[in-house]
Design brief:
3 helices, globular
């Protein structure tokens, strides 16, 4: 459930026009929170953010 909530929040922030810098800050805070209790697969956030950016650029 954690990943699904994070993915939904990223979509919401991106659609609201939040800057990439601020989205990056959110991702870092989320990663710190997750790492306090679980391992995070490295690199998946970057892939997700790039995919979002491509989807919005191709509209």
């Amino acid at each position: 459930m954690t990943w699904a909530n994070h993915r939904d929040k990223l979509n919401q922030l991106y659609e609201q026009g939040v800057s990439e810098r601020d989205i990056g800050r959110y991702v870092e805070r989320w990663r710190l929170w997750v790492r306090s209790g679980a391992e995070v697969v490295e690199g998946w956030e970057l892939g997700f953010l790039l995919n979002l950016k491509l989807k919005h650029l191709l509209r």
